[in-house]
Specification:
The structure holds two protein chains of two kinds.
Chain A: H1 16-21, H2 23-37, E1 41-45, H3 49-61, E2 65-69, H4 89-92, H5 97-106, E3 113-116, H6 124-133, E4 154-158, H7 162-174, E5 180-187, E6 190-196, H8 203-208, H9 220-234, H10 247-260, H11 270-279, H12 285-304, E7 313-317, E8 322-326
Parallel strand pairs in A: 1-2, 1-4, 2-3, 4-5
Antiparallel strand pairs in A: 5-6, 6-7, 7-8
Chain B: H1 2-6, E1 14-18, H2 22-33, E2 38-42, H3 67-78, E3 83-87, H4 98-102, E4 106-109, H5 114-127, E5 131-137, E6 140-146, H6 167-171, H7 177-193, H8 228-248, H9 265-268, H10 273-276, H11 292-296, H12 307-324, H13 339-355, H14 363-370, H15 378-396, E7 405-413, E8 416-421, E9 438-442, H16 449-460, E10 466-470, E11 473-477, H17 484-494, E12 510-515, E13 520-528, E14 541-544, H18 552-559, E15 577-584, E16 595-601, E17 612-616, E18 628-630, E19 636-638
Parallel strand pairs in B: 1-2, 1-4, 2-3, 4-5, 9-13
Antiparallel strand pairs in B: 5-6, 6-7, 7-8, 9-14, 10-11, 10-12, 12-13, 15-16, 16-17, 18-19
Helix pairs in contact in B: 2-15, 7-13, 8-12, 12-13, 13-14
The chains are: A alpha/beta, B alpha/beta.
The structure holds zinc ion (ZN).
């Protein structure tokens, strides 16, 4: 992966070709930021509508390399918000979602090295066949040794369980180099981004925070996402493997969680939980575009050292149209 | 799944996209993914290399092809069963008339210039089709919804026109690098390589005893036996040495200013280029490839050249124009994609800047200023396209109470990066969407009908194909199908002074101006006036009566005692102009809102996004939390700080 694709990482000055291609964005963030960007390596696990948008954005921007992980086979549902894979079933057998996305992304910018990382311990074919049998099961980088993450400057995960998020986040954190960690999830018309640039909070620290210690007026979506996540984990569901019929159980869980936190259970609007349940695995494409755009900007800021990355959650809900930043860290004093 | 499914676009809704560039590519993709299945796309442009970093539907191999067509083909690859109709054409073309617009449920703009935006606004009003307008610059962007009778139209708020500079600032007293760029591009470049018949202020206003100025035109004429390098050195001495000395003679000018320093070629470069550098004869033959930088071995466009290097580039680029681009000389207009022209303008601007003690700039920066290049990134376009689709679906569902205009900001504002605001009501004094008459102050004995047509009707009112009536008399009309005698009559009218037309215009005359394509008609009351400020009112015509809805008072309230008009004096780097355009009250939640806004103006030639757009005032300030105060209703209003 090192030095792959001749991604401008070698010389100190950008080539004439790079200057011509990146002219308009160099006018936004400068040559130095562009140079740092072109020497950065990004890992994306889980090819969802939001991560596909994100990948498009950072490949166009000219990161050094992009590594994709998602061993799932292509299904109609898996590409509902994916513009990288044509709806041609004969092509779907050629490889995993990551492989087909990779083939398409490579064309976006010949100066960026895009590759696929397979799940650990299995060769490609085995892995792929395993997935074919087990439709949505997929390997994720949580099973890799910590050293694996040293290759990357930023790791983005989508559509995986809370446990997996925690594990990957912890592995990134334990490395001597700074590896920025992000999660992005779109549930229907709602979306969430979490960022850990190793200077504030781990996923697990954040999740463990008592609600009363959070800043006032935190977006309701934050709490609703935690309840849904909690439900999926306790019911043994995969992300998004939920439906409207789960509503009674989710409302019961919400009541239980709110009581434990000494909050009134009307605190989280039932209608919001209902919307998230009904969304299931569906991703609303305009929301994917927004999440992929915001996350792209954040990762570019983090990698290029230009601009202030946000701290540490972003929420978008189509219903009110707000794109909100929430600072949810253990350091936050009550109120 | 009902509520989520509802957000899918109704099948079969025919929508029109105008523009297949930065926003357009993202928009076409997101529309297709969101279930839109009958999309029409108009774009007159072809693909360029500098588009490829964000217009992701295009590849290197598509350079030179129609954006609309390539975008269509690319989207059909991942959504083959939808209908996309592409038009490689100008939206101002007469075939896109009101009837054409009427077939659409909503029109989505992803345009790059004010002219086309105003044109589409008028057609949408005439066809009564909702319009969703958008724009981006760097990390900033906005989406607005315009529905006739319900929300303001695109032109309800006057748009800042492109920045112009007083002539004497450019010719005599530059204080910023951009003034030097304008001088190099509009005066020197035009003088040397443009049409010889054009007016040119390069040598004017040197002294107050102007009768003593000798005709020095001959300096620019190369004598038949004159050595080329000798000639270009003479030009150098004339414009950077002699002209500055002449200006210095006028002591009054320099009383409160730093005096410029004349620069002579013998002091900077005593030796001729051909004596220092033998390989100069090895210039490329292909005229499109000639470059002073490459023949001088300068490689880095980001580097700021010394005065000496700028001088070498100046001489070399001028000689290359004479030697290798002989055919072009005499009819060139500055083009940002003409490498040699950019090199010449950069060098000339830097030498002048050096003379006036203004910091020098790299070719990259100079090119941005001279070419009015917009700053653009893929991410903002993607976000804006997502927001357009969300609004488009509301429009299709007629969900008018939930229409929002949304600002995309770089630094969180009241915790928000995406900030929805309720749309404003129509401006009752808007000449485009209401029938309010305008007032024109003009010297009817000095202005010609031609001036009125060009400077007011076309430039200010944005009409494309105008018709002018005085009472029931038609005094002017444009179109291809006019009878010869009528066309001759109009041709004679345009040359006449307003007071001398067959039906003379006097103070108190009401004119009706119409554009049949835009189906826009407005009345103009004429008032005779003789005195005009040469610098501020160079057209000698002032059009008014089209006022913003808000009062200045709001600005003062919301800015909390700070400057009400923060002028971006040192924003040259981005070549944008920032000014307070209006203050509005309104909130996306309740009725109470206080939101001071400024306008970020980008040049009309800009690539992606916008000609003018309004952004929340705080956007461009440093994100200093201490400066944010809480007002009633929980709205945080930042104090204005100097935008430096
Ligand atoms: Zn209007």
């Amino acid at each position: 992966m090192d030095g792959g694709g001749g991604g401008g990482g070698v010389g100190e000055e950008l080539t004439a070709q790079e200057t011509a291609l990146y002219d308009r964005q160099i006018r936004v963030w400068g040559v130095d930021a562009q140079r740092r960007l072109s020497k950065s390596h990004v890992l994306v696990s889980g090819m969802t509508g939001s991560t596909v948008e994100f990948c498009k954005n950072i490949v166009l921007a000219g990161v050094g390399s992009l590594t994709l992980m998602d061993d799932r086979p292509v299904t109609e549902n898996a590409i509902q918000a994916n513009f990288l894979i044509p709806p041609d079933e004969t092509k779907w057998e050629e490889g995993s979602i990551a492989k087909l996305c990779c083939d398409s992304l490579k064309e976006f910018n010949p100066m960026v090295y895009v590759s696929v990382e397979k799940g650990k311990g299995e060769n490609a074919l085995q892995s792929f066949k395993l997935c074919l049998r087990n439709q949505t099961e997929r390997s994720d980088p949580s099973s890799f040794e910590e050293e694996f993450f040293d290759k990357f400057d930023a790791v983005v995960v989508s559509c995986c369980s809370l446990a997996t998020k925690k594990e990957i986040n912890n592995k990134c954190r334990r490395r001597p180099k700074r590896i920025a960690f992000y999660t992005v999830d779109c549930r229907g018309s709602c979306g969430e981004i979490f960022a850990d640039l190793q200077n504030y909070a781990y996923v697990q620290e954040v999740i463990a925070l008592p609600w009363r210690n959070l800043p006032r007026k935190v977006a309701k979506l934050y709490f609703a996402m935690r309840v849904i996540e909690n439900f999926e984990e306790s019911a043994g569901r995969k992300p998004g493997e939920i439906s409207h019929s789960d509503l009674p159980n989710v409302l019961a869980l919400q009541k239980q969680v709110c009581e434990a936190q000494s909050f009134n259970d009307s605190f989280i609007p039932a209608s919001l939980l209902e919307r998230l349940l009904m969304a299931g695995t569906e991703e609303y494409p305009p929301v994917c575009a927004i999440l992929g755009g915001i996350l792209g900007q954040e990762v570019i800021k983090g990698l290029s050292g230009k601009g202030d990355p946000f701290k540490n959650f972003f929420f978008f809900d189509t219903t009110d149209g707000k794109g909100v930043i929430e600072d949810i860290t253990p350091a936050t004093p009550p109120n | 799944m009902a509520s989520e499914r509802q957000m899918r676009a109704p099948k079969g809704a025919k929508v029109l996209m105008v523009g297949a560039g930065g926003i357009g590519c993202e928009l076409l993709k997101t529309l297709a993914l969101s279930g839109f299945d009958d999309i029409h796309v108009i774009d007159m442009d072809t693909i360029e290399v500098s588009n490829l970093n964000r217009q992701f539907l295009f590849r290197q191999s598509h350079v030179g092809q129609s954006k609309a067509k390539v975008a269509r083909d690319a989207v059909l690859r991942f959504r083959p069963h939808i209908n996309i109709t592409s038009y490689h054409a100008n939206v101002k073309d007469t075939k896109f008339n009101v009837d054409f617009f009427k077939q659409f449920k909503v029109v989505l703009n992803g345009l790059d210039n004010l002219d086309a935006r105003r044109h589409v606004n008028r057609l949408c009003l005439a066809a009564e089709v909702p319009l969703i307008e958008s724009g981006t610059t760097g990390f900033l962007g906005q989406v607005t919804v315009h529905v006739k009778g319900k929300t303001e139209c695109y032109e309800c708020q006057p748009k800042p026109t492109p920045k112009t500079y007083p002539v004497c600032t450019i010719t005599s007293t530059p204080s910023k690098f951009v003034h030097c760029i304008v001088w190099a591009k509009e005066l020197l470049f035009a003088k040397l390589f443009g049409n010889k018949d054009q007016d040119n202020d390069l040598n004017v206003r040197s002294t107050n005893s102007d009768s003593s100025v000798q005709p020095i035109e001959d300096v620019f004429e190369r004598k038949s036996d004159e050595d080329c390098e000798q000639y270009v050195r003479k030009i150098y001495d004339h414009v950077f040495g002699y002209n500055i000395e002449v200006a210095l003679a006028n002591e009054e000018t320099w009383k409160n200013r730093n005096k410029p320093r004349p620069i002579h070629i013998k002091d900077v470069l005593p030796q001729k280029l051909c004596e220092q550098n033998g390989n100069l004869e090895d210039r490329r033959v292909d005229s499109s490839m000639v470059s002073a930088m490459s023949s001088l071995g300068l490689k880095n466009p980001q580097e700021i050249w010394s005065l000496r290097d700028n001088t070498r580039v100046f001489l070399e680029s001028l000689m290359l124009f004479i030697d290798k681009r002989e055919k072009d000389v005499g009819n060139l207009v500055f083009d940002k994609d003409d490498q040699l022209a950019v090199e010449f303008v950069t060098a000339a601007a830097n030498i002048r800047a050096s003379s006036f003690g203004i910091p020098l700039h790299s070719l990259f920066e100079a090119k941005g200023m001279a070419g009015n290049i917009v700053h653009a990134v893929a991410t903002t376009n993607a976000i804006i396209a997502g927001l357009i689709v969300i609004e488009a679906i509301k429009v299709l569902q007629n969900d008018s109470c939930n229409y929002r205009m949304t600002y995309c900001v770089e630094h969180p504002l009241r915790k928000m990066l995406l900030m929805p605001v309720e749309p404003f009501e129509p401006n009752k004094s808007c000449y485009v969407c209401s029938e309010t008459p305008l007032l024109l102050e003009v010297d009817i004995h000095k202005s010609r009908l031609k001036d009125f047509v060009e400077k007011i009707v076309k430039r200010k009112l944005g009409m494309n194909c105008p018709l002018i009536m005085h009472g029931s008399n038609l005094i002017y009309e444009e179109g291809d199908d006019l009878e010869d005698d009528i066309a001759a009559n109009y041709a004679s009218n345009v040359e006449k002074l307003l007071a001398e037309l067959p039906s003379p215009i006097t103070s108190g005359t009401m004119l009706t101006v119409e554009d049949l394509q835009q189906e826009l008609s407005c009345n103009i009351n004429v008032k005779h006036r003789e005195d005009f400020d040469e610098e501020k009112e160079p057209d000698r015509m002032v059009l008014s009566g089209w006022s913003p809805t808000s009062s200045k008072k709001d600005v003062e309230v919301t800015t909390n005692g700070g400057s009400t008009a923060p002028e971006a004096t040192s924003n040259d780097k981005h070549a944008n102009d920032i000014e307070v355009a209006r203050a509005e009250s309104g909130d996306s939640v309740g009725n109470k809102r206080k939101l001071s806004e400024i306008s970020v103006q980008t040049p009309p030639q800009a690539n992606d996004g916008i000609t003018s757009k309004e952004m929340p005032a705080e956007v461009l300030e440093n994100d200093d939390e201490d400066d944010v105060v809480m007002l009633d209703g929980g709205w945080q209003i930042g104090k204005k700080k100097k935008l430096t």
